[in-house]
Amino acid sequence: MRVLRVVMSWLLCGATAVFVAPLGAAEFGSQPVRIVVPFGPGGGTDVVARLLAERLAPVLGTQVLVDNRPGGNSVIATRVVTGAAADGHTLLLTTDIHAINAAYAANLPYDTLRDFAPVAQLTTSPLLLLAHPSAGVHSMAELVALAKAQPGRLSFGSLGTSSPHYLGFAWFKKLAGIDVIDVPYKGGGQALVDLLGGQVQLSFVVAGNGIKHAKAGKAVALAITSPARHAVAPDVPTFAESGWPEFALVNWYALLAPAGTPAPLIARVAAEVGTILRDRAVIDKLAATGLDAAPSTPAELDALVRRDIDRYRRIIALTGAKPE
Question: Which residues of the chain have pLDDT under 70?
Answer without folding.
Answer: 1-26
